[in-house]
Amino acid sequence: MSGSTLLQIDFFDAFAVWRRNYDVNLRLWKAEVLPPLLEPAVSILAFGWGIGSLIAAKVTGIPYLMFVGAGILVVTGLVRAILECTYGAYFRMVYQSTYDAILSTPIGVASLGAGEILWAASKAAFDSLLIMVILLLFDILHSPMSVLIPVVIMVGATGLAAVAFAYTASISSIYQYNYFIGVAFSSLWICGAYFPVDRLPLVLQYLSWALPITSVVDLSRDLMTGRLDSWSMLEAAWIIVSALLAGEIALRRLSKRMYQ
Amino acid sequence: MRISAFSNPSRKQNAPSSAVAGIKVSQGNHCEQSPGRRHAVEAHRLMKKYGTFTAVDEIDFIVERGESFGLLGPNGAGKSTTMRMIYCRTPLTSGHLLVEGWDVRHDQSKIKALVGIVPQENNLDPDLNVIDNLNVYARYFRIPAGEAQDRAEELLDFMGLTEKRNTWVEALSGGMKRRLIVARALMNNPKVLVLDEPTTGLDPHVRHDLWDRLRELRRRQITILLSTHYMEEAQTLCDRLIIMDRGKILALGKPLDLIERNVSRFVLEVHEVDGRSPLSLAPKVIAEAHGATHYYFAPSPELLTPLISKYSDHKSLLRPSNLEDVFLKLTGRDRLD
Ligand SMILES: Nc1ncnc2c1ncn2[C@@H]1O[C@H](COP(=O)(O)OP(=O)(O)OP(=O)(O)O)[C@@H](O)[C@H]1O
Ligand SMILES: [Mg+2]
What we know:
heterodimer; B: alpha/beta; Rossmann fold; Alpha-Beta Plaits; 2 domains; globular; binds adenosine-5'-triphosphate; binds magnesium ion
């Protein structure tokens, strides 16, 4: 295969796939929307009131509640994207043969993959909106630039969802997720969500900044506090480029899997 | 129940400029090829390999427009693989394959817009109810919502599923699921309908019911490709058929012609003849032994009646020969041994 698979995406078709997931979720919204948000909401309370009360000093110049609030906001969205493109996608692909049915229609494999990944990213963005309401109640959304946070999370989640999706398209058993989940959830602990990256040993700092999710956390936090600079631009570029790269790999893996 | 009144799906088709030039496909007596004429399906040296294993081995056939065409063959013969190549779900390894004049290698979305598919394995969407299965599927074809809704209601009526309109797919019986898949396959008003074992596992009522619907579609000039393990089904539904085995076509023709060509008109089956070898007979009678059964084929029943007395202590059956005899003869009666 030559040329970019990304260019084969027909966004009208991808939207039809997206709509299918949307319709299903609309039916299940009670189970799909609220319960997964309970844990992040409580964790803001736990970190903010509990741990936050032990931390008198400001962290990177802002109160800890604000620091960690931004982190939880991003992590909630990213976890959602991971779950949607691992177990959710695997069920649709393998057990429900949903992809098989879709590929029997004029929809091509690139559009199918794009629809799935963008759906996961949309769900991440949607979740982050709800968490932002909670943060608003705590009065820690200071800058009006905060309205851009869901966009950053959506793009970042696209990249992470694409990585998860590439993995999903490559495995033959649902148990293989143990490896992926182990690595992915570990990386969420070193991406600067709960404490500043510069507290890590130097090697882990490099590793952390290589992960686009660290940039997603940092950029979101900067939008929240209104402290943008040229480093932020670099982070935005890295988030976008890495998402495109992961997307390309994911679509290729899916194509290989579905057309044997 | 006027499916013909449906307007075309929104993915409109322009006729392809020309079929692949230079392909000469020669097949059984029934099939004349005039240059420039387009067929529903044209396969030329069609081959599919999975790794080193050859599932479909350079087969040639043509399906005329409006024809009902059967694919028969034992498990693993390559029927589903052939069909999956036709509806662009599996890439070919080599050869040429045109569907309604379009090349499966280059015009996939055009072909998929024209073809309705009933896959061997159910792939209805379990997250959606019956009517949404049809509506959501229609979106994949870019059929406008209002039009899709009307067509979905009509098709539910046509397939006798209106009562189940709001039922979850998981709560349908096997036969209902099968009927819903047929309804779904008709959502895009296909020119070619591909049915991979549509009646496997259905009770005789549902099966005959489905046959009636398929005959109705046939009257509307829809090209039908059908695979089945029921010889009776093939005999009543198919204008022509192929019998495949191990990726190759063993025979092609009209069901009755195939019977005439491959076995004599009548057959005497004698059961439970363990250990005995078949009797030697008149020149026009052909004997075959398979497992514990002897088969005697002859052009007239009179040639066979004397044998019945020789097997007076066995169960025997004198009957007209049928497609199943052809199938068993060509694919080897004792392949399970
Ligand atoms: N994805 C695949 N990978 C490897 N081998 C395959 C694959 N799909 C089919 N085969 C093999 O190709 C051969 C033909 O399979 P196919 O499904 O076309 O048979 P079939 O005639 O439809 O059989 P059945 O009557 O059992 O449905 C079989 O030997 C099968 O094992
Ligand atoms: Mg099959």
